[in-house]
Write a structure and sequence with these properties.
Largest sheet of chain A: 6 strands, mixed
Number of strands of chain A: 11
Number of helices of chain A: 0
Distance between the termini of chain A: 38 Å
Oligomer: heterodimer
Number of helices of chain B: 0
Helix content of chain A: under 10%
Low-confidence stretches of chain A: none
Low-confidence stretches of chain B: none
Radius of gyration of chain B: 13 Å
Shape of chain B: globular
Order of helices and strands of chain A: EEEEEEEEEEE
Shape of chain A: globular
Chain lengths: 114, 114
């Protein structure tokens, strides 16, 4: 059962556009929500993460918006560039005990056209 | 630091053969994760260790898969016997307790079972 649902599966935008990727979760015990970026032939790498005590976090051109009541969070990429073309994964976890298990979305393949 | 090291980077084998994938985590990291990535199922957590002890192996597909971590700097994932449906990219990742939960991924091993 998919506990973190990610959409869309793929996305194409023009350079300078603002792609938005959405994720929804079910488990209200989740307290850590990271986004990972993966380039072809590479492993995923942490891009940005948020905890549920804030509704928004920005790092450079990347912003996470978090809606606790709706159990949704999204990634916005401002002024997107061709170099942002990659697969993006959302994830969620709860840090109960020594748990470090991330529940992953299925990924969004983003293409930014020049 | 060299990051997470995985070997081999590519493995082609025939059905029924034993396959061993290797991982060296980042020095000082006390969590180690094994993932499998396919187009159909995305990123799947197979097993993870804390201080060399398996914490959660619920993602291991079946008895053909086994993982060990004999010491803090080495882990193996073994498939015996291998089947064509095991073809995937296998990632190893590591993280450090208290390090903000970030998982650092290796470059992956692309496994093809003919």
């Amino acid at each position: 059962q998919q506990q973190v649902k990610q959409s869309p599966q793929s996305l194409i935008v023009q350079k300078g556009g603002i792609p938005i990727i959405n994720c929804a979760y079910e488990n209200t015990a989740f307290d850590y929500f990271p986004w990972y970026q993966q380039f072809p032939g590479k492993g995923p790498a942490l891009l940005i993460a948020i905890r549920p005590d804030v509704s928004e976090k920005k790092e450079g051109r990347f912003t996470i918006s978090f809606n606790k009541s709706a159990k949704q969070f999204s990634l916005h990429i401002m002024d997107s560039q061709p170099g942002d073309s990659a697969t993006y994964f959302c994830a969620a976890s709860t840090r109960a005990g020594n748990n470090r298990k991330l529940i992953w979305g299925l990924g969004t393949s983003l293409a930014v056209n020049p | 630091d060299a990051g997470v090291i995985q070997s081999p980077r590519h493995e082609v084998t025939e059905m029924g053969q034993e396959v061993t994938l290797r991982c060296k985590p980042i020095s000082g990291h006390d969590y180690l994760f094994w993932y499998r990535q396919t187009m159909m199922r995305g990123l799947e957590l197979l097993i993870y260790f804390n201080n060399n002890v398996p914490i959660d192996d619920s993602g291991m597909p079946e008895d053909r898969f086994s993982a060990k971590m004999p010491n803090a700097s080495f882990s193996t994932l073994k498939i015996q016997p291998s089947e064509p449906r095991d073809s995937a990219v296998y990632f190893c990742a590591s993280s450090v307790a208290g390090g903000g939960d970030e998982q650092f991924f290796g470059p992956g091993t692309r496994l093809t079972v003919l």
